[in-house]
Amino acid sequence: MKTTKLLAQFAFVLTSISLAIGAQAQTVLKFSHTDQQQGGRHAAAQIFAKKVADYTQNRYKVNVFCCSQLGSDPKNIEQLVAGGIDFTVSATGSYAPHIDSLNLTMLPFLFDSYEQGWKFYDESKWLKTQFDKAPAKGFRFLATWEAGFRCMTTKDVLNSPADAKGKKLRTFPNEMMRWLLEDVGFGVQIMPLPEVYLAIQQGAIAGQENPIDTIYSNKFYEVAPNITMTRHVYSPIPMAISEKTWQKLSPADQKAITRAAVEAGAWNRIEVKSSEEKQIAEMASKGAKINSPSLTPFREAVKPTYEKAKAKWGADTDAILADAAAVRKALPVK
Questions:
Q1: CA angle 205-79-85, nearest 5°?
Q2: pLDDT value at position 302?
Q3: 273/292 Cα distance (integer angstroms)
Q4: C-alpha angle with apex 197: 191 to 203, nearest 5 degrees?
Q5: Domain boundaries, the chain
Q6: Which CA distances in Å does 37 have to 40, 74, 104, 255?
Q7: Buried b (16+ CB within 10 A) or exposed e, 34-49
């Protein structure tokens, strides 16, 4: 009996040591983003986390923090640079304070379809050169995930730029977006995403602009029921890792985590594109008014945006426009 008891105690100690070693061996990484739990980027982040665990034999665990729990998009990127978090995913223009030329990705009406946008983000030599600047800034792009084309939700009907006069619209902090919206006729209000719903409800702003997936997951249509399908900017969301984190990884783990990011992004692209019509239909069934006015007046209104871009970024503006034109020519919308 005594021998059996000793063996049992020994087995328990060995198990405890084994579990402790296993726990120590697992590195926990933080992934912070601003999307809601039902949004496309949160679903992709969870897929990414699972793939990281699978591809690293559970040596890495990714904890996903949604809904701006750890900060706004600018704060998340600042934390990425500082090494306070390990991953984030945000609109390309959100990274512009660190890589100024990325403001140009927010030029209006560059693309007419998801497929054009995907080809550009996968193949543009100009964009690759800009993304290659990121490690020196403290982060590194692993893959381009999807949010969609930005549209406007307002309390009142928006049929043309004339309807924007005297009204304040919320957007995220980005120089090109500010120029664009001001040229359309709006006053621009910058505020964190979690504050937008209440600000519209209380009348502090007339509405906001975001991709359909974001409008749907944040239920902005409840307080700003007029959804205008301007599709004024194609707005994917590059997913990035802190350079401090990257440098701690072995080459094999770098490869595994990059693979997970690319695969989650491929799923995310299809999911966002395929969900758009269903989300629009559901919002309409709940009282949203879907408006598809002529975009010609909007395109005319933002011509000065292009002139400002050329004046500020010169050759970079010409380069992105050339790459975008080549994509539109290769994949024309019928």
A1: 115
A2: 98
A3: 18
A4: 85
A5: 24-330
A6: 8, 20, 30, 28
A7: bbbeebbbbbbbbbbb
Q: Which of the residues in the chain have pLDDT under 70?
A: 1-24
296 Ramachandran zone, left/alpha/beta (phi>0; psi -120 to 50): alpha
Helix axes of 40-55 and 251-285: crossing angle, nearest 10 degrees: 150
Q: Which secondary-structure segment (H or E) carries 273?
A: helix 251-285
**Strands ordered across the beta sheet of 187-190:** 187-190, 168-171, 207-211, 149-154, 226-234, 289-291
Interval 39-54: pLDDT, tens: 999 999 999 999 999 9
Q: From residue 87, how far is each of 33, 46, 73, 130, 324 by CA, in Å?
A: 8, 12, 12, 19, 28
* Phi (first) and psi of residue 77, to 5 degrees: -70, -35
- Answer yes or no: are the C-beta atoms of 154 and 167 closer than 8 Å: yes
- How confident is the model at residue 3, as a pLDDT? 52
Which pLDDT belongs to residue 334?
86
Write the pLDDT tens digit of every residue in 10-36. 555 444 444 444 444 799 999 999 999
Kindly write down the DSSP assignment for every residue of 56-82, as one continuous string: TTTSEEEEEE-TTTT--HHHHHHHHHH
Q: Could you tell me which CATH number the domain at 24-330 has?
A: 3.40.190.170
What is the C-alpha to C-alpha distance for residues 196 and 305, in angstroms, rounded to an integer? 25
Number of neighbours of residue 73 by Cβ within 10 angstroms: 24
Residue 207 DSSP SS3: strand
pLDDT of res. 21: 45
Phi, psi of 251 (to 5 degrees): -55, -40
Give the dihedral sign, CA 33/35/38/44. negative
pLDDT of residue 89: 98
Give the Cα separation of 243 and 128 in Å (integer).
Answer: 17
